[in-house]
C-alpha cells in the first residue's frame, strides 16, 4: 500500500478479510513513518516490530537521478541477495522517502482475554512474566506493567475506569493478555490460577476493554497530574528491576520535585520512564537536560540498555547517538547517507548521521 | 554467541534454560551462515526467518582498516538509528565476515501435536490452510505439503516410515503442526474435525516424530529414485496451485524423462520444486539449464514469485539476479559492496553484486 496510508486505514481495509496489522500503537501514524522509526507497540512481544513484519518497500532517494528503489515484494520467503528494504527500517527518514510498503498481516483474534495481576513486588513481577510466558506460549500477546504512580494518576483523573483490586493499589500492576483460538480464556485462567502464591498478592480476569482502558489512560492521567518529561528506554529484562530502582533513586536525589511514573512493555524490556513535575513548578531547560542525562545514563551505562527503545533518533538524543555508536558504525552509516542523500536534504536537520 | 557456533550447539546450550532457537532446518549450519542466507526453515510461518529473529551482530568488513562493525545488542527493542546488522542478513557473505550474533530464542514447546491430512485436491489444500490457520491462530507452527511423487518415494525407499492413510496415497498430503500450552492437542483435534467434508478426503492425528519422519525422508527417498535437480522457489500463496500445475505441464512437455516431486512450506509460499531423472539416464548440462529456466520462469514471470526462496544468490542463479533486480537496486547494493569489500575478496567469486 501507499506509505501515506495510516495504520487505522489499513486495518479498516483488511477487516473484511478477517485480517489486521498487529503493530498496535496508541497513535495512528502513516506506514512510511512506522518504517522510518521501526515502531513496535504494546503487542510487540507477540507480533514483532516493523522490521519483523516488513515484506518489501519502494523508496525514492535523493541522489542525482532521484533513483527509485523498487524492492516491493509481497513474498514471505524471498532471499535474492541483500535488498534495500531493510536499510530504510529505523532510518529516521535520512536515507530516502518511503513511498510504498508491503507488510505481513495477521488473522483477527478469535478469543482475547486479559488478567490484571498485583505481583508481590518488582522481583516477583519478573517471575510472573516468566511463568505467564511459558504457561501461555504463543498465546501471550501483551505483558504490560504499570507503576503505582501511573495507575493512580489514571484512576484519580480519568472518568469511567475500574479499580483493578478492592484494596489499596499495589506497587506494580500487570496487564497480561492472551489471544488465540477458542479456549484461550480458559488457558489464561488456568495459568493465572497456577501462579505461585508468594509472587502474587491479587489477580483477576478482566474484560480486555476495561483492562486496556486503564493502561491507555495513563498518558492522559499523568498530563493532568503535572508537567510530564517522558523517556522511552529499554533494558534487558533481567535489568528491569535494577533499572527501575536506580532511576527512582537518582531522580529523587537530583530532582526531588519530580515523581517517576513508569509503565511499559516488560515483555520486551521497554519502559516509559516518565517524570512528572508539579504544574505550578515546571522544569526548566537545565532540569530537562539533567533528567535526560540521568535516565539515559541509568539505562545505557548502568543497565546495558538503549536510550531510544522506539522513537529513533532526533535532535533530543543526537548527542547520545554520537556518544554510544561506535566510530566504525557511524562511518558505515554515513556511507549510505552520502550515497542516498549527499546534499542532506532528507530527514530532520538535527540528525547526527 | 560466536558466529561459528552451529544451530544444534546453540540449542544444546539453551535447553537447560528451557529455550531453543526455532529456525528449524534439516541441516545444521553455523549461525553466521544462517545470517548470510537468511534461512527460514520448516517452522518459519510461526517463528520467522533470521531477519525476524536477529537482535544484533558484529562483522568485520574488508575496507582498508578491516573495520569491525559492532552492533551486537541483545535488546529486543532498540531503535537508535539505522544499524548495520540488517545489512548483513541475506548478504551471501559479500559485505563482511559475521563474527558474532545475538538472536532471540523461544521457550521450548510444552505440547506439540500433528495432523496428516489428505485434501480433496490442490485448491482444497489452500482452503484447508486458511481454515487451519484461522482455527489455530498462533498455535500453528508448520504447514507442510508433500506431493504424491515425494511421499511415495519416501515410503517406498526409506525404512521405518508409516503410511499416513489406509487407502491409496492422495495427490497431496498435508502435515499440520500445532505447539503451545497444555490443551494444544485438543484444539488441533477440534480444528481438524471441523474442516469442511468436501475439502478433506482423510485426516488423522499422528505422533509428531512419525509425521516429521515422513517429511524429512523425502530428500533421501528422491535421491534413491534417481538424479535430483532441486529448486527452492516461492510464490504468493494464492499462486501455489497455478504454479504447481504450470510447472508440471512445462516439465512434462520439455523434459519428459523428469518427474516433478514437489514438497514445501505452503504456509509461507515456499516450494521445493524438485525434478527427478532416471538414474540410468541423468540430465546433461543443457537439460539442467533448461530445467532451471522452466522452473524459475514459471515462478518469477508467470506467478509473481522468487527464484530463491531460501538459498540466497550463488553462481547458479546470478544470471537471474541480474535479470530480475532493478538497475537502481543493483547500483545501491554495489555502493555497499564498494565500501565494505572494494577489492572483492569476500563471498563466492560468482556473486553478481
Give a brief rundown of this model.
2 copies of one chain form a homodimer. In chain A, a hairpin with a 4-residue loop joins strand 12 and strand 13.
Features:
alpha+beta, about 350 residues, eight-stranded antiparallel beta sheet, three-stranded antiparallel beta sheet, about 40% helix, 14 helices, globular, homodimer
Q: What this model shows, in words?
A:
The structure is a homodimer of 353-residue chains. With 353 residues, chain A is of the alpha+beta class. In chain A, 38% of the residues lie in helices and 22% in strands. The first copy, chain A, is built from 14 helices and 13 strands. Chain A has helices at 7-14, 31-37, 44-47, 50-53, 85-88, 122-136, 148-157, 184-193, 208-216, 218-225, 240-254, 285-303, 318-324, 327-340, and strands at residues 19-20, 54-60, 68-71, 97-103, 106-107, 111-119, 140-147, 172-180, 200-206, 226-229, 232-234, 259-265, 270-278. In chain A, strands 6, 7, 8, 9, 10, 11, 12 and 13 form an 8-stranded antiparallel β-sheet that branches. In chain A, strands 3-2-4 form a 3-stranded antiparallel β-sheet. A two-stranded antiparallel sheet of chain A has the order 1-5. In chain A, helix 6 packs antiparallel against helix 8 (184-193), helix 7 (148-157) crosses helix 10 (218-225) and helix 11 (240-254) packs antiparallel against helix 12 (285-303). The first copy, chain A, is globular. The two termini of chain A are 29 Å apart. The mean pLDDT of chain A is 96. At the A-B interface, helix 3, strand 3, helix 5, helix 6 and helix 8 of A face helix 3, strand 3, helix 5, helix 6 and helix 8 of B.
